[in-house]
Amino acid sequence: MWSTTRFNFETPALLFLLYINDLSSTTDVRTCIMFANDTNMFINGKNLTSLVSIINSKLDKINTWFCANLMSLNVTKTNYIMFANKRVPNIDIFVNKQPITRVYETKFLGVIIQYNLKLHAHINLIQNKVSKTINIMNNKVCFIHTTFKNTIPKFS
Fold first, then answer.
1. Which tens digits make up the pLDDT trace of 71-88?
2. Which parts of the chain sit beneath pLDDT 50?
3. What's the rounded Cα separation, in Å, for the pair 44 and 82?
4. Which residues have a Cβ under 8 Å from the Cβ of 106 and sit 6 or more positions away?
5. If DSSP states are collapsed to H, E and C, what string results for the chain?
6. Which residues pair with 133 in a beta bridge?
7. Which of 33, 35, 69, 74 keeps 20 to 30 A from 106, CA to CA?
8. What distances in angstroms separate CA 52 from CA 11, 56, 87, one per listed residue?
9. Distances (CA, A) of 80 to 26, 85, 131, 138, 151
């Protein structure tokens, strides 16, 4: 059973660069991926009870780190997703006594990942983008000079 927790905190760029490298050393999470102002932690546990305990413990350490560095965690933008081979009930994860929202799909480095590791939502997103682009290209062909029109393939 796996869980990932996404953090989002806002701070000026220079402070962000100074602080960010120290954040991953705050906990002993082996898989901590940081990109821009998003931090993703991947935590696993043998059962749901131990997983909740581990996550809450690590979040307490991270919250302490934020307070020590005069920063705050944006809890409204913080969420978690549970990856499991079966449906898992909601769990109680808190930061500073505020509950963290569970999501069933999240965008990770531009890819929409669902709780069951399916890519249906991401494929739908790409299909919509491609469809819109093709439609725009088809509509703009009428503005091209007639000598070039015959060289442009018609998309449908």
1. 788 888 889 988 887 788
2. 1
3. 10
4. 4, 6, 79, 81, 112, 113
5. CEEEEEEECCCCHHHHHHHHHHHCCCCCCCEEEEECCEEEEEEECCCHHHHHHHHHHHHHHHHHHHHHCCCCCCHHHCEEEEECCCCCCCCCCEECCEECEECCEEEECCEEEECCCCCHHHHHHHHHHHHHHHHHHHHHHHHCCHHHHCCCCCCC
6. none
7. 69
8. 28, 6, 16
9. 19, 17, 31, 41, 50
* Residue 137 near residue 155, CB atoms below 8 Å: yes
Exposed e or buried b per residue across 50-71, where buried means at least 16 C-beta atoms within 10 angstroms of its C-beta: ebbebbbebbeebbebbeeeeb
Any idea how long the chain is?
Answer: 156
The two most distant CA atoms of the chain are separated, in Å, by: 70
- As given in the structure block, the two tokens for residue 17 are 């660069």
With tokens 């990856």, the residue in question is 83
Question: Would you say 155 and 134 are in contact if contact means Cβ atoms under 8 Å apart?
Answer: yes
Contacts of 121 by beta carbon, 8 Å cutoff, 6+ apart: 105, 112, 114
Q: What is the pLDDT of residue 123?
A: 92
Cα separation, 85 vs 39, in Å, equals 24
